[in-house]
């Protein structure tokens, strides 16, 4: 957030227009002048310098051409910023998608990938219009740490061939358990020049991050590697030798080939793109909020992500999502608003139009070095160690998600991790619920001024015995709470339940109370509920009202 920017104000939410108005319109409505444009131009150029090598590296690692990565960053990045619900979000190809994209290309080809991206865009927009953005963020933290670390391992493994300059006898296997033996078998073909290029690239990036943190380390490292390769003629594979270079123009937009059989085949891939894209983009927006004090509009952001994926597919690109590293760079560079992201796309387009032939000299080993650094930075090492030490439940969720990501499937890892996290939460909430005696409910009113007396301690003869329920009374706690209340109901005459410290009662909890009320009624006794006003309304909706129970509002 620039110094000249006004203090953050809460964003109104509620009606359709407020929920889906792009932040670009909000920024322009606040007033936009030359100073704001200068700040956004500097930030946009800074982000473009970071995005340029990353976009090509991610595309190559995903089984696509480097041009496809640039087109995705240009079209998708522009639409994310122009239509999104975050002031600072930067969209483009992301390392987290490498596993899914490369798998889709291997299964269904480039046409299948483009169609899956198009369908994913429609799904993301639908999620936004259905106002589900707020729910997608309810992913347990151990799950996000686990699948991010798993993706990092797979990304690094996917770059081993280029990092070492290996020559394989056949296509490189996708699964890790098949890939590693194939790479080991090709170990005698290690290319020393490629290893040197990769190591030099990593060294330049790490060194500049330490001693010149504001300089574009990734671009400088890749440019230096390209210069060395061009001047020395080093025997390394380059973008030019592998892909014939990068075209100096954008392709004409065209709808992806749609066939019912192909659409049905790529539907699971599209769902996976949608799930991961929604999680990644909203997490990135949350990071930007934390850095700036602003609030993003999650549903508008999903709609923009959907439009960006549709747009990228029309130009032969692939998955677009909000990228945390580039978004954080945008904030640190002093961006004022979404114009910075739009200008970042414009600067990338200028590179394609004016300097694309230079990309042919970039060694693939250098881009592999860039992705090796990206993979290392993706792993949240401190968070993982903390979770593993904190308790066995979180450690199990993290470990299962991590292992399933590596050895099975990313979507399966997220679903299973979410389910385990949900079960862990239910277990913890059920343990927090308890029943405790609270005295006897007075049968007559006690004046407020009376010293040393209150309603529950009155011990008035004939008053109902009171038990207080603490914690949420929901299906996870219903069994344990019900067993206690059944024993109490067998012994007590008149019974009262104090539910003033029960923040939530679901249908299982209501059914439990109903059963207790009918049991006490059969014995000729009564059940009184002491509740807050909002709880009384919830219980009435479940049918718990007089004459079945007597309700007192606390």
UniProtKB/TrEMBL annotation:
The chain crosses the membrane at residues 41-61, 68-90, 110-129, 141-162, 182-206, 218-243, 263-288, 346-376, 396-426. GO terms for cellular component: membrane. This is Sulfate permease, SulP family. It comes from Rubrimonas cliftonensis. Keywords: Membrane, Transmembrane, Transmembrane helix. It is found in: Membrane. Residues 454-529 form the STAS domain. It comes from the Bacteria. One of its GO terms (biological process) is transmembrane transport. InterPro entries: SLC26A/SulP_dom, SLC26A/SulP_fam, STAS_dom, STAS_dom_sf. The keyword Ubl conjugation does not apply. It is a multi-pass membrane protein. PANTHER family: SULFATE TRANSPORTER (PTHR11814). Gene3D superfamilies: STAS domain. CDD domains: STAS_SulP_like_sulfate_transporter.
């Amino acid at each position: 957030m620039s110094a000249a920017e006004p203090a953050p104000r809460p964003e109104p939410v509620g009606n359709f227009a407020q929920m889906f108005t792009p932040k670009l319109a909000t920024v322009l409505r606040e007033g936009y002048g030359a100073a704001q444009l200068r700040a956004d131009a500097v930030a946009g150029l800074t982000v473009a310098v970071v995005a340029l090598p990353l976009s090509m590296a991610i595309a190559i690692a995903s089984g696509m051409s480097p041009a496809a990565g640039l087109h995705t960053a240009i079209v998708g990045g522009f639409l994310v910023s122009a239509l999104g619900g975050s002031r600072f979000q930067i969209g483009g190809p992301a390392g987290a998608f490498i596993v899914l994209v490369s798998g889709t290309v291997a299964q269904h080809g480039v046409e299948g990938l483009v169609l899956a991206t198009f369908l994913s865009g429609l799904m993301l927009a639908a999620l936004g219009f259905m106002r589900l953005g707020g729910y997608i963020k309810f992913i347990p933290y151990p799950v996000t740490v686990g699948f991010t670390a798993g993706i990092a391992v797979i990304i690094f493994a996917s770059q081993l061939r280029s990092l070492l300059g290996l020559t394989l006898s056949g296509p490189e296997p996708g699964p890790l358990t098949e890939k590693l033996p194939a790479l080991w078998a090709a170990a005698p073909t290690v290319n020393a020049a490629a290893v040197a290029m990769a190591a030099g690239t990593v060294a330049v990036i790490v060194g500049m991050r330490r001693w010149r943190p504001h300089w574009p380390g990734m671009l400088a490292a890749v440019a230096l590697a390209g210069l060395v390769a061009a001047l020395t003629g080093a025997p390394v594979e380059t973008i030019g030798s592998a892909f014939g270079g990068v075209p100096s123009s954008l392709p004409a937009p065209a709808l992806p080939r749609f066939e019912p059989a192909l659409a049905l085949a790529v539907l699971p891939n599209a769902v996976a793109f949608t799930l991961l894209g929604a999680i990644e983009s909203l997490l990135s927006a949350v990071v930007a909020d934390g850095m700036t004090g602003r609030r993003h509009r999650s549903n508008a952001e999903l709609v923009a992500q959907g439009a960006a994926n549709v747009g990228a597919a029309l130009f032969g690109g692939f998955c677009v999502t909000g990228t945390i590293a580039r978004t954080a760079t945008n904030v640190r560079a002093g961006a004022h608003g979404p114009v910075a992201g739009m200008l970042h796309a414009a600067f990338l387009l200028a590179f394609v139009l004016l300097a694309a032939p230079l990309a042919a000299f970039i060694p693939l080993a250098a881009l592999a070095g860039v992705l090796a650094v990206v993979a290392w930075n993706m792993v949240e090492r401190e968070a993982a160690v903390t979770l593993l030490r904190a308790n066995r439940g979180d450690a199990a969720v993290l470990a299962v998600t991590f292992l399933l990501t590596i050895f099975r499937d990313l979507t399966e890892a997220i679903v299973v991790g979410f389910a385990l996290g949900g079960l862990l939460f239910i277990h913890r909430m059920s343990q927090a619920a308890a029943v405790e005696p609270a005295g006897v409910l007075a049968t007559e009113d006690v004046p407020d001024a009376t010293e040393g007396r209150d309603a529950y301690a009155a011990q008035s003869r004939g008053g109902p015995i009171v038990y207080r329920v603490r914690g949420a009374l929901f299906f996870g706690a219903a069994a344990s709470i019900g067993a206690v209340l059944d024993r109490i109901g067998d012994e007590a005459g008149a019974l009262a339940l104090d539910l003033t410290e029960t923040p939530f009662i679901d249908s299982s909890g209501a059914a439990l109370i109903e059963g207790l009320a009918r049991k006490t009624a059969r014995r000729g006794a009564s059940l009184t509920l002491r509740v807050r006003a909002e709880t009384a309304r919830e219980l009435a909706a479940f049918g718990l009202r007089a004459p079945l129970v007597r309700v007192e509002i606390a």
